[in-house]
Design brief:
three-stranded mixed β-sheet; 4 domains
Length: 540
């Protein structure tokens, strides 16, 4: 076999074994990832030379042992040699010499290494801390029980002995009480969403302890009765988040870890909610009267639909309408109580509260597409709240969604006879989902459509609620909320006071929706899915 074909033999099964080889010989999953990357880098160097290999797998294992030997004897020199830049960039730069095929192979290998790092760590925690059997872990991870046993076998001796010592002392596995958070995000989650690395009860307990006061790894380990090594690794994961720049925890100068986002406990969250709900009857009355007074103005907006339903317009506007009061409170908080706070400068932020059995509101997603259905640009939006299910998520692809494309084609009317049998079936689904409606032999778009040039004016009418309304009520709420925020939020997080206000406003959206339904201004979609809360703007 030619050396240039070497990387083709590094498949998922072999890479799992290679990572196990590294894991059992290193301190933790991070060192294992580094050693595994060193070995892959060495194999890549060999693959870029001429010559033959007689027996490929014995050759690879010989390389692995040689690299491990250098790794152990010259740890510092090895780090300098291999870690001048991140592995993925370095390996892919190296692959450029061999073209697209090598680059694709290396990219797949590196992603697999990253997966294995997480897989080994989670197997250890699920087995030793969560008390799951190997078969239960295999089912959760979608792999074989044999693979799980192999990963457990590769556990380093330090962890193994520490856990065995604890088992001798307590004669039972660690059991963590259930604690959950409701964490919201705002901005672009593609940059970094730290919620994605906080998915286990173990993670939640560490976050909760660091929320109460800054803690060291040893303090957390003692509190939870968990081996320190688990805590050390989890702390770094929670600190780094997805991209190493924004996590749920921060490391202080004294080496301890503290909460890195606004997280309200049950009592504080309910007190904050109560400040808003006390004014809900008045808020709902003002908004109801406002909608009635501006009904014709809402309907006069230049939508592109053949006919426009006020119900759909108010559903489109409901999130902005529900925030009118909190926007007034926010302005007062900024001017009177947090005037010196710095502006938060990151693409994505999270904030939340300890789950108290109440879940409010939902979300608002948007997706863009270009050069589709004779439009140079389209942007779909949808809100999803208690009364409305989401139509799509922010990573949805318009080019593969026939229903959305039919909605674009039917803005000015679409003759049913012009559709293929497959398109007719898709159209039926689009009608059921609320994108289209039928008049005779023509399909029309039911969701609201406007020109992209008019997007800056879509919420102009509703935004006027932020001025000249709720003045006295907002002053009262702002004063009490500012005091609560300063008591409950760490001083170093006070720049993020606005998220505490968002949390306080949580009950308003659902309460307002129910009030408007009761008054006949809003009609909810059947089974939660329809044209309500979904709209698009287009550009030719």
């Amino acid at each position: 076999m030619k050396k240039q074909e070497l990387l083709k033999y590094i498949d998922n099964e072999f890479l799992d074994k290679l990572f196990g080889f590294c894991y059992v010989r290193t301190n933790d999953s991070y060192d294992a990832e580094e050693l595994c990357s060193d070995i892959i880098f060495e194999l890549l160097n060999i693959a870029n030379t001429s010559g033959e290999i007689e027996n490929v797998y014995p050759f690879i294992w010989k390389v692995a042992r040689n690299v491990y030997s250098r790794f152990s004897e010259k740890r510092k020199q090895s780090a300098e040699r291999y870690c001048d830049s991140d592995y993925e960039s370095m390996l892919l730069d190296k692959a450029d010499e061999d073209g697209d095929e090598s680059e694709s192979q290396l990219s797949a290998i590196y992603k697999r290494i990253a997966f294995l790092t997480k897989a080994y760590r989670e197997v250890m925690i699920m087995f030793y801390i969560d008390g799951l059997s190997t078969s239960e872990i295999a089912k959760r991870q979608g792999t074989s029980e044999g693979a799980i046993r192999q990963r457990l076998f590769s556990a380093r001796q330090k962890i193994k002995s520490e856990v065995e010592e604890m088992a001798d002392n307590y004669n039972k596995p660690v059991a963590l009480d259930k604690i959950d958070f409701i964490i919201w995000g705002t901005g672009n989650p593609g940059w970094c969403d730290p919620r994605n690395v906080c998915t286990r009860m173990f993670s939640n307990h560490i976050v909760w302890l660091c929320h109460k006061k800054p803690r060291s790894a040893s303090e957390i380990a003692e509190e939870l009765n968990v081996p320190t090594v688990y805590v050390e690794e989890e702390l770094e994961i929670l600190k780094n988040g997805e991209n190493g720049k924004y996590g749920l925890l921060r490391r202080l100068d004294n080496g301890k870890y503290a909460i890195n986002f606004v997280l309200l406990d049950k009592d504080v969250f309910e007190k904050a909610n109560a400040l808003y709900t006390a004014h809900l009857p008045g808020i709902c009355d003002i908004i109801t009267n406002y909608i009635e007074d501006h009904k014709e103005e809402y309907l006069a907006f230049p939508y592109l639909n053949k006919k426009v339903d006020l119900n759909l317009v108010i559903w489109q506007q409901i999130t902005n309408i529900s925030r009118a009061f909190s926007s007034k409170v926010r302005r007062i908080l900024k001017d009177k109580y947090f005037a010196n706070a710095a502006k938060i400068d990151r693409p994505f932020s999270v904030f939340g509260y300890v789950d108290n059995g109440k879940r409010y509101g939902g979300g608002w997603d948007g997706i863009s597409a270009y050069n589709v259905c004779d439009f140079s640009e389209v942007h779909f939006n949808n809100i999803y709240i208690t009364r409305i299910k989401h139509h799509f998520h922010c990573d949805h692809n318009v080019s593969t969604d026939g229903k959305l494309q039919l909605a674009l084609r039917a803005i000015e009317g679409l003759d049913i006879a012009s559709l293929s049998e497959g398109e007719k079936e898709c159209a039926a689904k689009a009608i059921e989902q609320g994108y289209l409606y039928r008049e005779g032999n023509t399909l029309y778009t039911k969701i609201l459509v406007s020109k992209s040039d008019d997007t800056s004016r879509i919420f102009e009418i509703s935004d006027r609620l932020k001025n000249g309304y709720f003045d006295d009520e907002a002053e009262s709420v702002a004063e009490k909320l500012a005091e609560l925020i300063k008591e409950a939020v760490p001083e170093y997080l006070l720049d993020e006071w606005g998220f505490a206000n968002d949390l306080a406003n949580m009950p308003v959206l659902d309460a307002l929706v129910e009030a408007l339904i009761e008054k006949g201004i809003l009609t909810p979609p059947e089974d939660g899915i329809g044209a309500e809360g979904c709209w698009v703007y287009v550009k030719k």
